[in-house]
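Quick one:
INPUT:
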């Protein structure tokens, strides 16, 4: 082998090693489909508002700051109406036969879902549920808490103990699970209260995490279950974190199944639940 060939091979080995070091520890780590591999992902779901009621609204300054500092899916859609089937769709790639908001039987399904996939892969998962009476409680409702927004209780392959109260959301964000959902209560999520109320709740309760995510290879995903039934089910979906280009947007049409697919791929999972298997990864917002 010529000296020049040896030099080229040595350079290639060194370059690959350098790239691997960045990939293991930095924001440029990539999972399947070009989706970044964050250390922590937090997904927050709000309620019953169309994208046009949030983006550009003076009642939602914090939502709009996340848009300007993160990635915005301008054609993001829910699956159906009413609320509950959308939560199952986002979590498991299927509405699981749920067609209304009535109180389902806990553990009625053993179908694959985001949590069961994470657990099988040895990755950490939890949900943080505002106004849940106690960790693991399967009550249908309690004050401003409603189980219809908590699909994990519907699956026998998800431990009920993984459903925590929002008071258990850590202040040391490095101790968060690798992926978690946050479900505000019926007022904080805009279901019973105003856009302004939900905007303030998001800033006060997850604004510090969002800022931390920018410098700690982590991600905040903010979305809605459905719109107000007047705007074609187009909803606000935002991505914010170190791996997201500030002020980026994608006009590709996405739905809950695509967001689920993206979450699965962000965790390097080898399986995809339900219709997420045919979904597409969110693109056009990621830092290279």
């Amino acid at each position: 082998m010529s000296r020049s060939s040896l030099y080229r091979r040595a350079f290639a080995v060194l370059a690959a090693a350098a790239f691997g070091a960045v990939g293991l520890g930095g924001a440029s780590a990539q999972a399947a489909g070009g989706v970044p591999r964050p250390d922590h992902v937090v997904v927050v779901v709000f309620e019953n508002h169309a994208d046009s009621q949030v983006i550009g609204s003076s009642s939602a300054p914090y939502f709009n700051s996340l848009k300007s500092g993160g990635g915005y899916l301008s054609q993001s859609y829910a699956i159906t109406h009413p609320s509950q089937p959308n939560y199952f769709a986002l979590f498991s790639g299927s509405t699981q036969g749920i067609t209304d908001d009535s109180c389902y039987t806990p553990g009625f399904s053993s179908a694959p879902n985001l949590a069961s996939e994470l657990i099988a892969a040895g990755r950490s998962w939890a949900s943080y549920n505002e106004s849940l009476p106690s960790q693991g409680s399967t009550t249908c409702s309690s004050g401003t808490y409603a189980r219809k927004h908590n699909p994990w209780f519907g699956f026998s392959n998800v431990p009920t103990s993984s459903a925590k109260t929002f008071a258990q959301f850590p202040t040391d964000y490095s101790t968060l699970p690798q992926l978690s959902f946050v479900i505000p209560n019926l007022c904080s999520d805009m279901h019973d209260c105003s856009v302004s109320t939900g905007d303030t709740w998001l800033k006060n309760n997850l604004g510090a995490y969002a800022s931390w995510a920018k410098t700690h290879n982590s991600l905040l995903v903010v979305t809605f279950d459905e719109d107000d039934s007047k705007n074609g089910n187009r909803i606000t979906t935002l991505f914010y974190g170190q791996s997201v280009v500030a002020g980026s947007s994608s006009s590709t049409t996405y739905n809950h199944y695509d967001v689920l697919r993206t979450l699965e791929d962000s965790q390097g999972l080898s399986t995809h639940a339900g219709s997420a298997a045919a979904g597409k990864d969110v693109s056009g917002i990621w830092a290279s």
